[in-house]
Amino acid sequence: QVQLEESGGGLVQAGGSLRLSCASSGLPFSSSNMAWFRQTPGKEREFVAGITWSGRCSDYADSVGGRLTISRDNAKNTVYLQMSSLKPEDTAVYYCAAQDYTKRYYLPRERDGYEYWGQGTQVTVSS
Predict the structure, then answer these.
(1) Distance CA 118, CA 95 (A)
(2) How far is Cα 68 from Cα 90, in angstroms, rounded to an integer?
(3) What pLDDT is stored for residue 48 in this prediction?
(4) Are β-strands 121-126 and 10-13 bridged in parallel, bridged antiparallel, or unpaired?
(5) What is the pLDDT of residues 53-83, one digit of tens each?
(6) Which end of the chain has fewer CB atoms within 10 angstroms, the N or the C?
(7) Contact 110, 119 (CB under 8 A)
(8) Distance CA 50, CA 55 (A)
(9) Which pLDDT value is given to residue 4?
């Protein structure tokens, strides 16, 4: 059973920082591509950042403007999203996602490119 569990969300003032974590189990984690998505009410779930199984390659949505960094610790089966200079428009539920492939070098930006999902963690940025 593949399980992904996000944590680290909360309420933060504009300009502040948060680090989201995604703990995984049941995956060949060190061989699995991972990603973060976010979703607000009435909008499609959108790609935020992705990282390959090796951690050698990463991809970011243009909208994050260099304020977010994705990383992984394969020894802990955990993916992180470091968020800084947060803006109210960053307010969303953030989801961790995993791809049902091993040792692939293509990072999809589409929701359908990932098979496993966590329940999400709320990030609220106040103005």
Answers:
(1) 6
(2) 11
(3) 98
(4) parallel
(5) 999 999 999 988 899 999 999 999 999 999 9
(6) N
(7) no
(8) 10
(9) 98
